[in-house]
Specification:
heterodimer, A: about 375 residues, mainly alpha, about 70% helix, globular, B: about 280 residues, alpha/beta, Rossmann fold, six-stranded mixed β-sheet, four-stranded antiparallel β-sheet, 10 strands
Chain lengths: ~375, ~280
């Protein structure tokens, strides 16, 4: 019995490998379709599509970050766009420094907007961002540190539920207002844009675009696997236990606030990476990314896909954003209504999201962590059999 | 003069500074008493929930706490487990451990397990996982991230599954268990941690007669190796398990003794049993 159990513990999660395989294959096909196929071939994938796919994958990674804390630990963050945007600004600052004297004003040291503001020297917080490694370190550290400070204060004071959600919303809104100011030194309203190259490669070339897309896919796969490993470990079980009965976990001797803080930091770092990958692909980062609306949209992606399942979050982000692309092309004004309707419908009829629907059709047992009570009788039968 | 006495007090040769004492992790029951609660006072917005409460519990004892609603039973448990800080008074676990200086997680790791009034288990986890999480183990973030279930831990889980009679349900989701089974699972979770002191809040609320009987057996079998404090409203149940009963009333101890002594105590008859003959 015990051996059987250990076997299922190690090999039972059959969904991860196929999912990563599909991701790798599709990425490879799309990349080759762009680079090797002639333009008139039916297998040709346009560079526009590649960039679009890369953008979707960044969103998927962001959804993954939100799902890790919302779906598994019950912390509903309505401010995760903030960590995404901070990661994006980190990358944006590196890309700005790479422009060098090719800017409109031709100043080798200062980005255009600083010359425009009559600044004479680089602010101290821009130092080091001409180094790629430093910028990438900051992409992890800045969101991570902010999440640590915020989480430490909030979770230690045992702020939970809707109050925490409101605070995260306020956090991202405060950052939005701060980054709008020119004095902040991040380009104010216009943000950072007009990027030329990354690590010496021209950002406009097909090869760079495909490489960025492939890197995004790779990192999405990697963060997916790492998140899965974390959540399947005993720590993951504690995290779900905190979601379902925080005081029980505390009286069992777990310092629940520490688990929450570290999970929040982990999640913020993934969001930061997603933001850093997003910026070179879309070519701009501005304070609009801090908008509370963006953060709420992420939550909807996760809800549509199915919270508490990592695949659900990724699938949800991809599908909703694909729908957004299509829908806004046909009826730009209607999108927000469609998004709202989708959220209401999913909440009412699909509490498990699309993944839950899929499992129902397949007659699968629900994922351990999905917390499905609707399927309880079934679980009982299985146990008896 | 005053300064001189202060200095003398400081220089006393038999003085032991608290910071020089080693940090005790083991409970010291050399005087047979495992829990000292002395002069406890606590008021919420003027309402005195605990009023100069004194309680001593011996090691290995099965003690029942009874009392009407609002008598301070659950508040007392909150104070012992670190959830609430009293206005004044002291709570010692054994001779050396001052529980008021520790938080919930610390107190749990020192060996005090608590079962809530409403059965609280991790519903999205299997019975087995519930017990795994309750193992006596390192409970920091990093140790749990890399924790592996060892064979001896699996044996320990099997042992507890046998004690609480949930062997058949080991892979069932805890949320799918019946009410009584959840209560037992929660007691099992406490046992996993090998506690010295178990605080059990209303273990038979909502149970069938049969389940109640089994719970009574379970709790009496636990006493001896563990110290058990049971809070319960069900008088039949208390009579069936209790050796010593403590009656709380308005945040203070009204009477203490065997069930018969307590029931014949005129004060108790007046304030508690008198209302529900």
């Amino acid at each position: 019995m015990n051996q059987l159990m250990r076997f299922t513990r190690v090999h039972g999660d059959s969904k991860v490998a196929p999912f990563v395989a599909i991701l790798v294959i599709l990425t490879a096909l799309a990349s080759l379709g762009n680079l090797l196929m002639p333009q008139d071939s039916i297998f040709y994938v346009s560079t526009y599509t590649i960039t679009l796919l890369g953008k979707y994958l960044c969103y998927a990674m962001l959804a993954l970050a939100v799902d890790v804390i919302w779906g598994y630990c019950g912390i509903l963050s309505l401010g995760h766009g903030a960590f995404f945007a901070l990661g994006g600004y980190g990358m944006g600052m590196y890309l700005m420094r790479q422009i060098g004297d090719r800017g409109v004003y031709g100043n080798p040291e200062l980005p255009d907007f600083m010359v425009f503001l009559n600044w004479t020297e680089l602010p101290w917080f821009w130092y080091g961002f001409d180094q790629f490694w430093f910028a990438m370190l900051m992409v992890l550290l800045i969101p991570g540190t902010l999440a640590f400070i915020f989480g430490w204060l909030a979770f230690r004071s045992r702020v939970t539920g809707v109050y925490l959600s409101i605070m995260t919303q306020a956090l991202t809104y405060a950052l939005l207002l701060a980054f709008f100011r020119n004095e902040m030194g991040f380009g104010g309203n216009n943000g950072l844009t007009d990027f030329k190259d990354i690590l010496g490669f021209d950002l406009q070339s097909d090869n760079t675009r495909v490489a960025l897309f492939a890197t995004t896919a790779f990192l999405l796969g990697l963060t997916f696997i790492i998140s899965h490993k974390i959540l399947k470990s005993r720590m993951g079980k504690v995290i779900v236990a905190i979601r379902d009965g925080e005081s029980r976990a505390r009286f069992l001797g777990y310092r629940t606030e520490r688990y929450k803080v570290w999970l929040f930091v982990y999640s913020a770092m993934i969001a930061g990476i997603a933001g850093a990958l997003y910026v070179p692909q879309v070519g701009i980062i501005n304070p609009g990314e801090f908008s509370p609306l963006n953060s709420i949209e992420i939550v909807i992606w996760v809800a549509v896909g199915g919270r508490g399942t990592l695949i659900g979050a990724i699938v949800g982000a991809l599908l909703v954003n694909y729908a957004k692309t299509k829908f806004t092309a046909i009826m730009p004004d209607g999108w927000l209504f469609a998004l709202g309707a989708m959220f209401v419908l999913v909440t009412l009829f699909l509490p498990q999201g699309l993944v839950g629907l899929f499992n129902k059709f397949k007659g699968n047992k629900p994922d351990n962590n999905a917390g499905s009570h609707a399927l309880e009788p079934k679980a009982t039968e299985d146990a008896k059999a | 003069m005053n300064a001189l006495t202060d200095v003398r007090e400081v220089m006393r040769r038999d003085r032991v500074w608290s910071f020089l004492q080693e940090d005790h992790k083991e409970v010291d029951v050399s005087h047979d008493v495992i829990l000292y609660v002395e002069g406890l006072n606590l008021s919420f917005d003027g309402f005195k929930a605990l009023n100069d409460l004194n309680l001593y519990v011996n090691d290995g004892e099965l003690r029942c706490l009874i009392g009407a609603n609002g008598a301070g039973k659950t508040t007392l448990m909150d104070v012992i487990t670190g959830k609430t800080t009293p206005d004044s008074g002291s709570v010692y676990f054994g001779q050396t451990l001052n529980l008021l200086q520790h938080d919930e997680a610390d107190i749990a790791n020192l060996g005090i397990g608590r079962k809530f009034q409403k059965p609280t288990v991790f519903e999205a986890h299997s019975v087995f996982d519930n017990l795994e999480l309750s193992l006596k183990q390192q409970k920091g973030v990093m140790p749990t991230l890399f924790a592996r279930l060892s064979p001896s831990e699996i044996d320990r889980i099997d042992e507890v599954l046998a004690i609480i009679g949930l062997k058949e349900q080991r892979f069932m989701m805890a949320g799918a268990l019946s009410h009584g089974q959840k209560q037992w699972l929660e007691i099992g979770m406490l046992l996993m941690a090998e506690p010295r002191l178990l605080l059990v809040d209303e273990p038979v609320a909502g149970m069938t007669a049969q389940e109640t009987e089994r719970t009574a057996e379970l709790l009496t079998s636990l006493a001896g190796d563990h110290t058990v404090i049971v809070v319960e409203h069900d008088m039949e149940f208390v009579r069936s398990i209790a050796r010593t009963v403590t009656v709380l009333h308005q945040g203070t101890v009204l009477a203490e003794g065997t069930m018969d002594q307590v029931q014949n105590n005129p004060d108790v008859i007046e304030v508690y049993l008198g209302e529900a003959p």
